[in-house]
Amino acid sequence: xxxxxxxxxxxxxxxxxxxxxxxxxxxxxxxxxxxxxxxxxxxxxxxxxxxxxxxxxxxxxxxxxxxxxxxxxxxxxxxxxxxxxxxxxxxxxxxxxxxxxxxxxxxxxxxxxxxxxxxxxxxxxxxxxxxxxxxxxxxxxxxxxxxxxxxxxxxxxxxxxxxxxxxxxxxxxxxxxxxxxxxxxxxxxxxxxxxxxxxxxxxxxxxxxxxxxxxxxxxxxxxxxxxxxxxxxxxxxxxxxxxxxxxxxxxxxxxxxxxxxxxxxxxxxxxxxxxxxxxxxxxxxxxxxxxxxxxxxxxxxxxxxxxxxxxxxxxxxxxxxxxxxxxxxxxxxxxxxxxxxxxxxxxx
Length: 348
Prior knowledge:
Helices cover 3% and strands 43% of the residues. By secondary structure, the protein is mostly beta strands. The longest helix is centred in the first third of the chain and has 6 residues, at 62-67. It is globular.
């Protein structure tokens, strides 16, 4: 592993300076992460010919992430995805959240972790650990947490993202990473020819506001079936309720083999032949095909459009607090919240 590089990532509105940390392995892969939002800014992978390809969408400087609303590369917390009615009850106490998605709360509302400067607890040639203090009632959630997010790049071309904290009150915690991947390269247009497989026999049905109904629906015989690898565009225009409501894929898959760290998805770029494997220990994953990206000015002067990327957001199920048949994202006082996601890259 080569020496870590620290560079300026520009100033934000407060006048504070942000930093970018670049990790490089001996196989030619490198990632760049920022202390602004604990954000994954670049993932550069050699393709089958050894040419470096940046496979995540993003911005050139921190102000792009500060002003943007699409969560490119973001660390999402305290609770990822949607909570219906922007409120919940825990231990017979009602908590009100920001309504930033119609009547609902999305990715914890307006004060999201991705818009804050994180501290760097430690860094090495292999990994960087960011920390953030989140006080009681921050974003409306009970309990104080000091969250740690560690990015690690291995010599096996693995990007490991680990989350750790322990609350002082019972609370909800559901962290994820919201990177937008295009395995042909961030500037290459839509991902409809990418081939994807998801190890899930079912998905959580949602209403037209993307709030789960509580129903778990088998994927077999539907456009939601990715048990075998298929092109993303094969069924994305189907006249099927979930597809119509989501304007494409924007749903939670119920991952097989819960309770252990395992491979849950695989994707391959049709031009680059770069393959990404997704691993997690969490029960669900939101597969999202950038359905609401439009004329977004990104890195290197590129203007991103609808379906120019896809997200693999590992998670507890959306709105789980309102559905007792879903595994709950409740972390009790003094308990440890610890989870990991890994993206592994191979050029075939």
